[in-house]
């Protein structure tokens, strides 16, 4: 039995957490099954863009897809409610939330609605806000700056609520758009910035950590239920091991290659907002985004967003927070 | 003009008029997007998406018109060496294979477009079925032009299914793959 | 399965199937042969997403702009300018032919339309001055390949979009190699002018004449300034620059030269629609087959095979050059780029070759294919325009071909020729 696992990062075992986790998945499955099961890793979107890979996963041509929220949203729009800015304060809380009852409830609902099974929320990282105009400490500093966002309504609403001019620019034109000043700012996780070399054309970074971009591992219910009991044990173990590896790799890459040091080495000025300043961002953005969630996703979306906020609170109240 | 070529001409006219309007609109939309963003500093959020959808429609529907004019790039060297009757037979077999592919576009692509009626496009907020409808529609139009071409081969009106309609200078340019 | 795929594709190509349909039909047949009918879903999906790239839009725009500029007769003005600059040399009109091609290259993105426009005008003029017609045709065909190497360039738009390489960077990288082709061709004409007994007509133009010719050509010459200056100065992206080029050409035609009318619009738009139709469908179909190749991990296998020969970047580039030269002899250049680019580009990146350098090597190479016998688009057009037979032209173009191959060798072995300018401007 061959399992095809697909992701969009480069096939680089040193600098891609998604690829590292896929390699661990492959290793566990192939070594535990004595060669009865094998894994083909398809990196760098070679089996298609986010939307296509989801479609292929649904049809069991790809067995495991490492998707983004944007990719999932095409098939399960409700997930957009999880993309609530400033909801998740740090990675440990984020992982606790997604590994706990909230994550399970989300997975169950998604499977019931779409036939897509959420296996794990693997490695994730926070977005930073960068621009080439001026240091941004509060939303007031963003006034009038043209920030590139994806054409996602909640991202546009967030940027506009912060006073910026949201401007959609395709990813493949982003570097030259930033360089030449077609747009002045953007937001992305640091490893993504590194892929596009955006640090070369941006001066100021603000560690707002406003959105959490994670690797969502999905399969189809059909494939999963077609596994024998023995196969499923190995498969589940491999997913768990890959999750540990991916999350660990992401954190260690943050400490080595793709952290604040990376931005500073590129000559950027990095600012970490205080709790007060973060509160100003949150107070401007959250109501605006909640409104788009209500408009686009209705009651179900609003309920999910509120569940997320509750789950975060519960997780932070628990032990071992940081 | 035979009935076959008249039919092809009418079909072309019906498709070209909207395509020309779409082409002009595509230029206007991108220019407007540039103007609003650069001059008015008030970026429009929908121009990129609208222009991109128009481009895809123009390209894929335009491809059907290229069949009518025999403008699709191909290697003719070897078929030219074949005896005339054999050449016709080869063209018909190839056309039949292409129709299978076009059938996939119409059948499966049509299904995909229908499924997408409930998804909306990110910027314009229109149903994704609108841009995706170009898949089955281009399949149908390409199929019709191809069938007309094969029929013209049968009546002896044309020597080949894929050769240029009017071998004049413009078409030499086209064939040259500009 | 890989062999089935290759066999089906080449058989279909040999049978004269249009490239796009050869690619698509091969993909469908392979899925049927593998008994993987569920995969057929990918066919319409990739057919659509293969061209769902905003940056590709620059292509129809540059076609449109080029068409309008041909229509408003800026050719005459550019020829006049070149004439006062180099027309008085021995072999003057041959030099003019090359210099006008360089001017034109800064205006338009394609080679073939320019070949036709310039050939119609210059080949008879050269013949009247005593050039042999095959020589005149060869100069025309050879210099026309400068067009897509100097920006703007349709082929660079396609390359950049497909390979995710900065289009603005490619534009900047093409300037020096494009000028080198022009200089190389002019050097050949100058060095062999006596041996070939090329005519020498007239004397150097007066400063006043040069000034007047410049003034007449000023608006067309502003176009590259607007396009490149606009892109590099941050006013617009390459796609927007292309749209602005259209507006500029329309403005000049309607309000300055006043030789364009609304009734010309359907014709130029029709050109754009049909050119998009025939190129984009190759992209769409190649995306389908490309997916199937990725599924079977064929590009990795080819990569390992090539890297098995040598891991020296120069050796790899040499292999690529030979491969493209051979394939370019029999296949359309855009199709070659679309099919082989996505396979070769990642290997070049693995070897640490600069993406802009590799892009320019590929682009110079596939442009060379426009003038390599037996199948070269610019050869065909020149034959049609000049009524010189393909055999005669193929022989006559050989020395020019060697010059361009020499430039290609230089561009291949000296990355700085392509990478310096983009680096100075801050691209990649
Ligand atoms: Na050019
Ligand atoms: Na020329």
From TrEMBL, chain B:
GO terms for cellular component: plasma membrane. GO terms for molecular function: transmembrane transporter activity. It is a multi-pass membrane protein. Keywords: Cell inner membrane, Cell membrane, Membrane, Transmembrane, Transmembrane helix, Transport. Residues 26-153 form the Tripartite ATP-independent periplasmic transporters DctQ component domain. The keyword Isomerase does not apply. GO terms for biological process: C4-dicarboxylate transport. InterPro entries: DctQ, TRAP_DctQ. This is TRAP transporter small permease protein. The chain crosses the membrane at residues 16-38, 50-68, 89-108, 128-148. The complex comprises the extracytoplasmic solute receptor protein and the two transmembrane proteins. Part of the tripartite ATP-independent periplasmic (TRAP) transport system. The keyword RNA-binding does not apply. It holds the Pfam family DctQ. Belongs to the TRAP transporter small permease family. It is found in: Cell inner membrane.
TrEMBL record, chain C:
Residues 6-417 form the TRAP C4-dicarboxylate transport system permease DctM subunit domain. It is found in: Cell inner membrane. Pfam families: DctM. The keyword Transmembrane helix applies. Keywords: Cell inner membrane, Cell membrane, Membrane, Transmembrane, Transmembrane helix, Transport. GO terms for molecular function: transmembrane transporter activity. It is a multi-pass membrane protein. The keyword Secreted does not apply. GO terms for cellular component: plasma membrane. The complex comprises the extracytoplasmic solute receptor protein and the two transmembrane proteins. Part of the tripartite ATP-independent periplasmic (TRAP) transport system. Belongs to the TRAP transporter large permease family. This is TRAP transporter large permease protein. It comes from Caenispirillum salinarum AK4. The lineage of its organism: Bacteria, Pseudomonadati, Pseudomonadota, Alphaproteobacteria, Rhodospirillales.
């Amino acid at each position: 039995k061959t399992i095809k696992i697909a992701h969009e990062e480069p096939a680089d075992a040193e600098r891609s957490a998604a690829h590292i986790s896929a390699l661990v998945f492959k290793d566990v499955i192939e070594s535990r099954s004595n060669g009865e099961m094998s894994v083909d890793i398809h990196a760098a979107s070679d089996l298609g863009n986010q939307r296509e890979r989801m479609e292929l996963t649904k049809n069991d041509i790809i067995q495991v897809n490492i998707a983004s929220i944007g990719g999932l949203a095409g098939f399960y729009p409700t997930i957009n409610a999880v993309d609530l800015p400033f909801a998740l304060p740090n990675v440990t809380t984020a992982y606790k939330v997604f590994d706990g009852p909230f994550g399970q409830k989300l997975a169950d609902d998604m499977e019931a609605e779409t036939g897509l099974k959420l296996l794990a929320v693997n490695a994730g990282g926070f977005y930073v806000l960068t621009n080439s105009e001026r240091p941004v400490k509060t939303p007031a500093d963003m006034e009038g700056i043209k920030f590139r966002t994806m054409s996602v309504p909640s991202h546009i609403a967030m940027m506009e609520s912060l006073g910026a001019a949201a401007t959609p620019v395709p990813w493949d034109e982003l570097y030259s758009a930033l360089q030449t000043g077609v747009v002045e700012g953007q937001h992305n996780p640091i490893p993504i910035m590194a892929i596009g070399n955006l640090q070369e054309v941006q001066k100021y970074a603000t560690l707002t950590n406003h959105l959490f971009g994670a690797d969502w591992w999905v399969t189809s219910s059909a494939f999963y239920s077609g596994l024998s009991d023995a196969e499923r044990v190995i498969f589940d173990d491999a997913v768990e091991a890959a999750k540990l590896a991916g999350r660990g790799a992401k954190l260690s890459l943050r400490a080595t290659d793709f952290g604040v040091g990376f931005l500073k080495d590129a000559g950027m000025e990095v600012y970490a907002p205080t709790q007060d300043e973060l509160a100003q961002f949150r107070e401007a953005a959250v109501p605006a985004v909640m409104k788009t969630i209500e408009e686009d996703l209705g009651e179900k979306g609003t309920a999910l967003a509120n569940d997320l906020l509750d789950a975060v609170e519960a997780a932070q109240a628990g032990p071992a927070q940081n | 003009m035979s009935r076959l070529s008249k039919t092809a001409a009418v079909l072309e006219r019906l498709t070209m008029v909207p395509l020309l309007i779409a082409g002009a609109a595509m230029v206007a939309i991108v220019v407007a997007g540039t103007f609003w963003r650069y001059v008015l500093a008030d970026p429009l959020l929908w121009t990129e998406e609208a222009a991109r959808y128009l481009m895809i429609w123009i390209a894929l529907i335009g491809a059907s018109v290229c069949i009518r004019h025999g403008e699709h790039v191909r290697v003719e060297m070897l078929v030219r060496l074949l005896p005339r009757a054999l050449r016709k037979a080869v063209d018909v077999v190839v056309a039949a294979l292409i129709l299978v592919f076009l059938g996939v576009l119409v059948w499966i692509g049509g299904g995909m477009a229908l499924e997408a009626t409930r998804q909306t496009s990110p910027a314009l907020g229109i149903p994704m079925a609108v841009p995706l409808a170009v898949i089955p529609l281009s399949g149908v139009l390409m199929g019709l032009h191809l069938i007309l071409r094969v029929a013209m081969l049968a009546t002896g009106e044309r020597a080949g299914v894929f050769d240029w309609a009017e071998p004049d200078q413009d078409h030499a340019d086209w064939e040259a793959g500009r | 399965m890989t062999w089935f795929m290759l066999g089906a594709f080449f058989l279909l190509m040999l049978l004269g199937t249009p490239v796009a349909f050869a690619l698509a039909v091969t993909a469908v047949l392979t899925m049927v042969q593998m008994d993987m009918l569920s995969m057929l879903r990918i066919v319409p999906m990739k057919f659509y997403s293969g061209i769902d790239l905003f940056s590709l839009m620059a292509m129809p725009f540059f076609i449109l702009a080029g068409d309008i500029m041909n229509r408003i007769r800026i050719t005459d003005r550019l020829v006049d300018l070149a004439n006062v600059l180099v027309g008085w040399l021995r072999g003057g009109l041959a030099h003019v032919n090359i210099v006008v091609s360089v001017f034109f290259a800064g205006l338009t993105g394609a080679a073939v339309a320019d070949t036709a426009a310039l050939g119609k005008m210059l080949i008879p003029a050269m013949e009247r001055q005593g050039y042999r017609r095959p020589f005149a045709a060869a100069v025309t065909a050879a210099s026309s390949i400068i067009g897509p190497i100097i920006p703007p360039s349709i082929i660079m738009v396609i390359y950049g979009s497909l390979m995710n390489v900065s289009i603005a960077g490619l534009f900047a990288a093409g300037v020096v190699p494009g000028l080198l082709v022009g200089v190389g061709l002019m050097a050949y004409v100058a060095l062999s002018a006596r041996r070939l007994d090329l005519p020498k007509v007239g004397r150097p133009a007066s400063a006043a004449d040069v000034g007047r010719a410049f003034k007449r050509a000023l608006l067309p010459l502003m176009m590259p300034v607007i396009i490149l200056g606009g892109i590099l100065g941050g006013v617009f992206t390459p796609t927007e620059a292309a749209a602005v080029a259209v507006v500029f050409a329309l403005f000049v035609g309607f309000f300055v030269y006043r030789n364009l009318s609304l009734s010309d619009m359907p014709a130029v738009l029709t050109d754009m629609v049909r050119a998009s139709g025939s190129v984009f469908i190759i992209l769409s179909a190649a995306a389908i087959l490309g997916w199937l190749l990725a599924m079977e991990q064929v590009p990795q296998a080819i990569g390992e095979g090539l890297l098995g020969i040598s891991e020296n970047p120069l050796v790899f580039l040499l292999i690529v050059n030979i491969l493209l030269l051979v394939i370019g002899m029999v296949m359309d250049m855009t199709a070659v780029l679309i099919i082989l680019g996505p396979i070769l580009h990642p290997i070049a990146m693995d070897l640490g070759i600069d993406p802009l350098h590799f892009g320019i090597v590929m682009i110079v190479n596939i442009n060379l294919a426009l003038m390599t016998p037996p199948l070269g688009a610019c050869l065909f057009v020149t034959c049609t325009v000049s009524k010189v037979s393909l055999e005669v032209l193929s022989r006559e173009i050989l020395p020019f071909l060697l010059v361009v191959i020499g430039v290609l060798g230089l561009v291949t072995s000296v990355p700085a020729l392509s990478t310096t300018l983009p680096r100075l401007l801050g691209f990649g």
